Fold this protein.
Amino acid sequence: MVSEFMLQQTQTSRVIEPWRRFLDRFPTPQTCADAPLSDVLVLWAGLGYHRRAKALHDAARLIRDEFEGAVPSEVSALRRLPGVGEYTAHAVASFAFGQNVAVLDTNVGRVLARAIANRPLRPAEARCVARDLLPRSASAKFNQSMLDLGAQFCTSSPQCANCPVAQVCRWRQEGGPDPAPTSAGVSRRQSTFEGSDRQLRGRVLAALRQRPHSLQQLMDTLDVAGERGASVIDGLVRDGLIERANDEVALAGQASSAAPRGSA
Ligand code: SF4
């Protein structure tokens, strides 16, 4: 579940080290739930899209409070957890618990549209096709194979000459316009990072991972027009990732976790 959260918007190569650090520090949902959010945000360094860190922390708290500390195995229960959408619920149910459910992401959506249907698939259609294709046994291995096929061969510029299913691929055999770009779940490119608010949010959080800052220190760190810097900081406060008390800004939970025992 932790790896699926981290992989939602980050490449595998960038996830491996943070994933190891995270599981060393939080070997169970309970240990994560009991820690302040600031500890999770410190371990999230390098991954970006920090709302996922808060959602994972909130999910750990729900697992502790309502699922006796054990990650649920059913898709319907997984969907109740913050940050767990259709894809993540199916991936956790399949890969962690061996449930017989189809995993459908951007990569698999491309394979289904090209190799099976040779036409664009709407979301509900893609889910049906994925379900029909699922074998009764070893479905987790099958799901992993479909993800790999989409990631390594059936990419946006497909490598058909080397593809292991080229012999049975409808688009390859029948031809026609590429059905993948307008199919369900086929994502658009991420917006440019350089100069974006996403980059500024990362800079605020990187500074606060070191220590709490005064508002003025943070604005100096950002080095952008005052209005834009203030709006980035306000956005992080609204998302519950940082806290602002008077002039001091800190990671969420950092100030309270640093307070001496017995203090108000
Ligand atoms: S043959 Fe080409 S289009 Fe068909 S599944 Fe393989 S990579 Fe995709």
The radius of gyration is 22 Å. Residues 51-66 form the longest helix (16 residues). Residues 106-174 form a domain with the Endonuclease Iii, domain 2 fold (CATH 1.10.1670.10).
